Amino acid sequence: MLTLNQVSRRYGGATALDGVDFVVPENTYMALLGASGAGKTTLLRLIAGFEEPDQGTISLHGERIDGQPSHLRDIGFVFQNFALFPHLTVAENVAFGLRHRAHAPLTNETEIKDRTEAALELVGLTGFGHRGVSAISGGQRQRVALARTLVCEPRIVLLDEPLGALDANLRSRMCDELKAIRERLGVSFLHVTGSETEALTMGDQVAVLANGRIMQSDAPDMLFSHPGNAEAARHLNAWNIFDASLCNHDLGQGPIAVRFDQIDVSDPGAAPTERPALHATYLTGEFNGPTALSFFRAADGTLLQVVDHLSQPRLPDLVEGQGYDLHFAADALRQFHGAA
Amino acid sequence: MTALTTDTPSTTTHSPAELREKKDRRRAIALLSPGLLWMTLFMVLPMAMVIYVSFWTQTTFSVNSTLTTASWERFLSSATYLGAIWTTLRIWLIVLIATIVVGYPVALFIGLFVRNKTLQTALLVACVIPFWTSFLIRVIAWRPMLGTEGAINMILMKLGIISEPLTFLLFSEFSVLVGMTQIYCVFMVGPITFMLGRIDISVIEAARDLGASFGTIFRRIILPLSLPGVMVGSIFVSVMVLGEFATAASLSGRKTNLLGNIIVSQVGSLKWAFAAVAGVVLTIIITAVIALALRLVDLRKEM
User: N or C: which end of chain A has fewer CB within 10 A?
Assistant: First the structure.
């Protein structure tokens, strides 16, 4: 179990992490979702030991690891750009850790070879060992980077946007494979990403990092349906967040959130009275294939989005620039207290 | 190709691909020709001339173009001149190693530990500052430094480390080595810094994450990746040191005779044929050294 306790990291005047409390349980695929610049990579670098926290403690299996040299932490790190050793072959890359680690290096060449081949087989690269790393494709490099890390059997594997450099097809395939590999090994993965779909697909648990803190850490379906605060909801890219006072019903004060797919649209005044409604101007629509997204502007300038599934269309014909009533079931809204 | 165009005259229109190819070829020739012309006029022809002259007949004060191998025989049978080859090779090797030993850590610092590009450039420029003065001043400045009443002897005497001045410091092979290492070190620092600067820092972090200590990372990752830089630096330093004569002339007190010094003195006494022999020998040595260096590291693969 990896535990971060009140971890802070500042760069000059800028605060990257501001008292992060975070737990990655055993045998879990943890996805960490955050916008670019939110401090995701910093968090991983602190755990791996490439940097040290200004405040707070990091411990792994109850043993404090901050302050330990990074090469003795026994933590796997998969880099976004793969960071393969350009002058070594695929097999030499994978064997590097086994052969050259300071703690308990292997000297038996047969064992090194067997374990290298097993690791390459695990990531589906049997027979690629002799190739140079510049002579393989991006997806294969990703696998080599993974094999190189996994072969050392680290206590936890950190993946820094591991799919970011791959094309969309490859990304969805690697998603499944990463999950399968992790389940086979039984080690925890901490996968950092900026994509909410990736985080929700991959994670047994998903944590949202924003403003230098973990906003929420929950199971993906729980996080998606019950975001605990406005920041978490915003990162899921499925929630409209607006001020409660915009609605005709008395919903109290502060920000409330309603999911894109739970808002219905009527002509002004035609909304059912039992449903809370707000007035907004239709801006434009975006056709995405199976779904269509419509954009509205509320009275205070807030941008609102409504998703319509083409199989069950529920929106009337919309005219750009015209006002409409957006209404939703009273139990569809999430109300946040005190959060920004 | 030419046959084809003559068979079907004027009416044929060339395909755009052919036209493009023609244009590219014309451009390549245009780009190449100044260099080729220069090389032919000022390198290939003079080289051939030097080889030719080395077989001329040398009398005391003149040469004539009667072909003979006399100069070669004299050169290859003389202990002095063979000794000069040996001295040249020895000094080259020591200076080469010294520039690597002194230059590599500097390059390592600038290229790898300074990650700010502006600071990197500033430090590299600082390495070149000695070159803002003339070559001669840089060499002669070593005299007040290393002489019997020079700075180093004075300091050592004041500190009581030595009781009488060290005489081997100046006008010896030592001073030539010191002078050359100082002058040529920057040519080693530059290329190595460049190669080290290209190493992705995350590659080093990856090695560290896999459990390797800094020593291992240096041996297994940093050193191999910077070797092409060492090789390019070595070629620069080698070419300059092997052809050197000025440092040896002003700092060795005429005790160290390099092939370069022999050429200078032979030309000075109008022994053209003999100077030509030494020139050809020097060229062969330099060519061999560069060929060897290129063999060791495949630059095409690494750059």
Answer: C
Lowest mean pLDDT among A129-138, B29-38, B132-141, B210-219: B132-141
Does the structure show a pLDDT above 70 at B252?
Answer: yes
User: Are B209 and A81 a contacting pair at CB < 8 A?
Assistant: no
Q: In A, which residues are within 8 Å of B207 by CB distance?
A: 85, 96, 100
A280 belongs to a structural domain: yes
Any residues with CB less than 8 A from the CB of B89 and at least 6 apart, and which?
A: B285
Q: Determine the Cα–Cα distance for residues A2 and B15; give it in Å rounded to an integer.
A: 67
Which of A44, A85, A133 best probes binding to B when mutated, by most B CB atoms within 10 angstroms?
A85
Which residues of chain A approach chain B closer than 8 Å at the C-beta? 48, 50, 70-72, 74-77, 79, 81, 83-87, 96-97, 100-103, 105, 148-149, 152
For the segment A52-60, the average pLDDT, to the nearest whole number, is 95
- Longest CA–CA span in chain A (Å) reads 80
Contact assessment for residue A198 and residue A181, using Cβ atoms and an 8 Å cutoff: no
**What long-range pairs does B19-23 form, CB within 8 A, spacing at least 24?**
none
Beta bridge partners of A239: A259
Contact state of A97 with B212 under an 8 Å Cβ cutoff = yes
Q: How distant, in Å, are the alpha carbons of A230, A340, B143 from that of B153?
A: 76, 73, 12
In this model, does residue A22 exceed pLDDT 70? yes
Residue A6 domain flag: yes
CA of A172, closest CA in chain B: separation in Å? 25
ipTM confidence:
0.85
Same domain, A181 and A328: no
In a domain, A340, yes or no: no
Residue A330 binned pLDDT confidence (cut-offs 50, 70, 90): confident
**pLDDT tens sequence across B100-130:** 999 999 999 999 888 788 998 899 888 888 7
In tens, the pLDDT along A271-308 reads 898 899 999 999 999 988 888 999 999 999 999 999 99
Residues A278 and A252 in one domain: yes
- The continuous run of DSSP H or E covering B202 comes out as helix B201-209
Which residue of B lies nearest to A100 if distances are taken between CA atoms?
A: B212
Q: Are strands A291-298 and A303-309 parallel, antiparallel or unpaired?
A: antiparallel
- Expressed as residue numbers, the domain containing A18 is 2-234
- SS3 assignment, position B285: helix
DSSP for A213-259?
Answer: EEEEEE-HHHHHH--SSHHHHHHTT-EEEEEGGGSSS---SSEEEEE
CATH code matching the domain that covers B77-302, chosen among 1.10.3720.10, 3.40.190.10, 1.10.10.10, 2.60.120.380: 1.10.3720.10
Q: What pLDDT, in 10s, does the model give residues A180-216?
A: 999 988 999 999 999 999 999 999 999 999 999 999 9
- Tell me how far apart the alpha carbons of residues A195 and A215 are, in angstroms, rounded to a whole number: 16
pLDDT at B128: 84
The CATH number given to whatever domain includes residue A276 is 2.40.50.100
Say yes or no for a CB contact (<8 Å) between A83 and B213. Answer: no
